[in-house]
Amino acid sequence: MLTQVDLVNQRLALRLRKINLYDLKTASDYQDIQLVNKSRFSRNLSFHLSRKDSSINIWHPNTQETENASPTITASIYSYAMLPLDKAIIELPGKAELTEILRVDDVDKGNFLIYTKEFEIRAIEKRGFAPNYKFVFYLVNPGKSGIKSLTFKDENLYLERGRLKWDNGILEGTGLFTEKTDGPKLGIWYVQYNFNESKLLKDTIQYFSKPIRSLPNNGFQSTLMRHSRLESFYIDFFVKADSGKRVIVTEQFFLLPAAIGASYTYNRFYGDILVLYMNEKSEIYNAHRLIKAQQTYNNLGEFSSYYLERKDSTLMFFYNDNHKNKNSGKFRHLVWHKHSELTMAIVNPHAVIKYPLVNYKTTEGILQVRDMRKLSPNEYLVYARKKKRSKIGILKIDY
């Protein structure tokens, strides 16, 4: 959490808390790791953390002091014992004011894969309702000179931020696209590029077929949005299956301000999950729509979307559902805690099977599925919340 004004010598810390899984008690005191010291930054500066096999990776764009400065990124690596292992400063071409850093990955042999969205300023006579940005993928080694890059754009379509896969120098990226900024999602973009040979392997735009556009839905979309039932889908996962095929997972999300007395909060709507299956030719050969609708009236996120586990092309979704829904055709929004039931849905290219697990009464709280962690096959660490009380436990599944 940052201040609303720029100050010098600000400090941002990562707090680590260890839990003993045997008796679910705190196993150690808090530990702090300092990330930024004697640095100036604003509210818009983002810090990102990811975990690898034996280290923690943290990166953030740096604030620029001059208008024409190039974008720079600080990437740090720490051990699980909170000891600094390595640090790199990465500089990219272009202007920082027109560059949005979307993702930084430490991929292999000291190389960083950087995913950016770069805007252009057009002359007044050329302005209009057309995209003025492009996606640029950089491969950078801070210890060596030279930067490899791939530019991906479309002059007529609005390409949305996507997800990436990296395998021995080969980049794969995919995302959704629209024909206007507030329009429905019309299909996916897909790119495959070999950085080792500087060769574009595949570059495609694929529109959704009629069966995908007409998949069953929960009906809440048409009551909230102006245009299409596919309008508010956002990509969550890009899965590289063992068979060489690909799976794309998207979810509906909609945010609506809600007045409460003299102040206001937000209604958050988490809707259907759309699963797209791609073959080796990068064509969508099948799709499923997992029907759900969760509604949260505050910012605590009780009905927090879903948790995903996978084995090849088979996906296991965990989410809170309305216990009155079952398999009936009439869908009720999940709004009140007492209606909550944890549901597991197994999805493969051929079928969707749902299993009810536990309800709000038996757990004495609503499970925060986004906080689930897999401990062993069919055993999960879960976090439950009931009003101002919180508790942690272990969920075992037999099926």
Helix and strand topology:
Layout: E1 10-16, E2 19-20, E3 25-26, E4 31-39, E5 48-51, E6 55-61, E7 72-79, E8 84-91, E9 99-108, E10 111-119, E11 133-140, E12 147-152, E13 158-159, E14 163-167, E15 170-178, E16 187-194, E17 199-207, H1 210-213, H2 221-224, E18 233-240, E19 246-260, E20 263-278, E21 284-290, E22 294-296, E23 306-311, E24 314-322, E25 340-347, E26 352-359, H3 360-363, E27 366-367, E28 373-376, E29 379-386, E30 389-396
Antiparallel strand pairs: 1-4, 2-3, 5-6, 6-7, 7-8, 9-10, 10-11, 11-12, 13-15, 14-15, 15-16, 16-17, 18-19, 19-20, 20-21, 20-22, 23-24, 24-25, 25-26, 27-29, 28-29, 29-30
Q: How would you describe this protein?
A:
This protein has 399 residues and is mainly β. It has helices spanning 210-213, 221-224, 360-363, and strands at 10-16, 19-20, 25-26, 31-39, 48-51, 55-61, 72-79, 84-91, 99-108, 111-119, 133-140, 147-152, 158-159, 163-167, 170-178, 187-194, 199-207, 233-240, 246-260, 263-278, 284-290, 294-296, 306-311, 314-322, 340-347, 352-359, 366-367, 373-376, 379-386, 389-396. The strands form eight sheets. Strands 13, 14, 15, 16 and 17 form a five-stranded antiparallel sheet that branches. Strands 18, 19, 20, 21 and 22 form a five-stranded antiparallel sheet that branches. It is globular. The chain starts with 9 loop residues before the first strand and ends with a strand. The model is unreliable at 1-5 and 221-227 (pLDDT under 50).
